[in-house]
């Protein structure tokens, strides 16, 4: 049944049946591609963010396929190559670090460490106040020696598993690039069709797409820049203290993405380690540097990116990030702020559409 403009648009049973079929069809499509949903969503968001760059490239390269392909090559070079170099360096320095730790323990330094007054008092306190069963037949020295001596070997043996995971990430990345290739060319037609199906006016539809652009850009840039800046700052501190700077800087960079704990998950144990081995000056330096330099980066950089372009206050940004990561994992760094921002836009549209009614209600 075709409904012409101006005809009666009252819903009947055939319309509800059509809605049911559409819902079932969309759900079936979702079930088929939900495993690959993250790369697809990131491809769409990247296409939206990089649209100005595509339009500029399109003017230089008249063929739209070649322009999109050129942009895909640029993204690959900018993301994949540095990623592989970083992973390779991290694995190499990690093996070296654990082998050095094993040599340090084999040289008898662990026994000296356990004999330090502070450590001895801690162990005596624990033995005195905790249940005996927790410490009975436990040889701390043997456990630490065994773990450290096999840590490097473990990393080498697990290299196949690590490579498999990296291959999975790279596979998803190229899926994202593949989707990006088509979406970046046809996004205008795609969004026009989607918004045509949505019963909102053009002004409100433009508000939604603009919010997606600004929040996506600020969330991605805020997270990436903050993570890199904290990793670099942390790596400098570790290098000054005589520890593998690149390795622990990279680890700190990833740790910075964890809400609440963040980089403290790395620099607190490092500070304790330096303190216990007698390098208390380096320990104090690590604590001061991590609190006032590394910590301040997160307090200033991320809010600048997020608040400046998304019109969300610091509390809302914080809740959106921890809530998003709790629900979506690492992708929640993007999805959380995006969902919160879209909710705020929809509430604003609701206020505009029902302003008279709401104002009327307030006066009662």
As a percent range, the share of helical residues equals over 70%
Uncertain runs: 1-8
Q: Describe the sheet with the most strands.
A: none
Q: Rough shape? A: elongated
Alpha plus pi helix count? 15
Q: How many strand segments?
A: 0
Class by alpha and beta content? mainly alpha
Residues in β-strands, percent: under 5%
Q: Please tell me the total number of domains.
A: 2
What integer is the average pLDDT?
A: 76
In angstroms, what is the radius of gyration? 27 Å
Our measurement of the CA-to-CA distance between the termini, rounded to an integer number of angstroms, reads 45 Å
From N to C, what is the helix and strand string? HHHHHHHHHHHHHHH
General description of the model:
The chain is mainly α and 364 residues long. The protein folds into 2 domains: 161 residues, no CATH class; 164 residues. It has 15 helices and no strands. Helix 4 crosses helix 10 and helix 9 packs antiparallel against helix 14. The radius of gyration is 27 Å and the shape is elongated. The two termini are 45 Å apart. The relative contact order is 0.08. The N terminus is likely disordered.
Which structural traits does this protein have?
about 0% strand; 15 helices; single chain; mainly alpha; about 375 residues; 2 domains; disordered N terminus
Summarize this, please?
This protein has 2 domains: 37-197, no CATH class; 201-364. It contains 15 helices and no strands. It has helices at 13-33, 37-49, 51-60, 64-106, 109-114, 117-129, 140-157, 159-197, 202-240, 245-255, 264-276, 280-310, 314-328, 332-353, 355-363.
